[in-house]
Design a protein that fits this description.
alpha+beta; 3 strands
Length: 88
């Protein structure tokens, strides 16, 4: 678990929600360009959104999702859908 990367993810999300107050929820996949622009992930990835999903899965498996307070997970039978919401 890369705490520096998690800190950068949180900063990107804080900045995004500060600038886009009308956004109530956004898919993790849709934030990838912002994460790439911030240098958190490389542009080259085989499946859209895979790098952020991998980070979120690792946090979930280690019961550490609270390290990214913006994350919301919708659990399904076979998979999980990841979203970010502004802090309340």
């Amino acid at each position: 678990m890369n705490l520096v990367k998690i800190k950068k993810i949180n900063q990107v999300l804080a900045d995004y929600f500060e600038k886009n107050k009308h956004v109530k929820r956004i898919r993790a996949l849709d934030m990838m360009d912002c994460f790439v622009d911030a240098g958190i992930f490389n542009k080259e990835y085989e499946r859209p959104g895979l790098p952020i999903r991998n980070v979120l899965r690792e946090l979930d498996e280690n019961n550490c999702l609270d390290l990214i307070p913006y994350v919301v997970v919708e659990r399904k039978d076979k998979n999980r859908n990841w979203f970010f919401e502004p802090l309340k």
